[in-house]
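User: Here's a chain of 379 residues. Predict its fold as tokens.
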Amino acid sequence: MIRALVTLMIALALGACASHPAAITFHANENPESLADWGLFDVKDGHIAPRAGLVSYELATPLFSDYAQKWRAVFVPKGMSAHYDPVKTFDFPVGTIIAKTFYYATPVGTAPGTSEHVLKVTPAGYQPGDKGLDLSHARMIETRLLVKRADGWQALPYVWNAEQTEATLQRTGAEIPLVFDDAGKSTRFTYTVPNVNQCAGCHATDRTKTLMPIGPKARHLNRDFPGIGGDINQLTRLTKIGYLSGAPSPATAPRDARFTDLTASIDARARAYLDINCAHCHSATGPARVSGLWLDSPTIDMRKLGTCKPPIAAGTGTGNRVYSIVPGHPEQSIMAYRLESDNPGEMMPENGRSLTHAEGVALIKQWIAGLKGGCEAGA
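Assistant: Prediction complete.
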């Protein structure tokens, strides 16, 4: 009798250990194998919904990732806040979790997670509202976490199962074959989930190779977005809920344009696109700083932006072109060539995509075509 009772107690204890937390749980040292152990979401009734404390946000212009849609969300420990910076990534406290879930829309009539066919949705943004993602016509691919620990940020990629019920840690990354459907045209491609070391290729943005988030900067977040408190400016929302301190009025904070906003100037739209897609490498502090090609929004020197600038180490990626940008001539510009290429040895960005972003390429070509001047005098 006693032995049976002890056995039952052990079984119950093990069962409790195996259960997932009912609230957001920060792991200061462990890297749980299951995404559910972080307690960020509830997956039920055909939805994946954020738990209390996980706040959705969106960028003015999102980074292109093979037309994947993205749900971005952040958790900051109670009683703590990130410190505002007008240029750099906000200084988040230890215990912060940034989650980015990549997913695609799927054809009507397919069960969640079963179709290899995914649909083009552009611009690729978050399904607005506080209820989370509707999974009835979606296929979740991965959720990437950036967690702020005592020794800095750490990146953890979690890949969702076919049933769309659970995501597990894949330290070595993953390759997922998909078929991209765009207006009747189907293209097979491989979606690549980066391994933990590859994350540094974009997120190690200084000489110390310290990982940093890319999106949570003032100029990317300074826009209205639906969520807690209604459709309001994101800097205002984050300040009101205590997640951000020291932010000025949105009217005086830096602001990148939406690259799809036809009411904005072509220059503002193109610069915003290059900033989010390229500047984590091509800036004064990024891994590509030695190239001398700096594409972040604060840079205003047209030579550093590539005008009449010959490449330093582009190899075959020049396409036999001489300058990064030739004003008025996108067909002669290395920048347009590399953005359009899907050749792994030539394309830019060199990580995070297999497909060409047609809308982004068209924008940059239009921008270059409108630039004035010539390279013979400017070189």
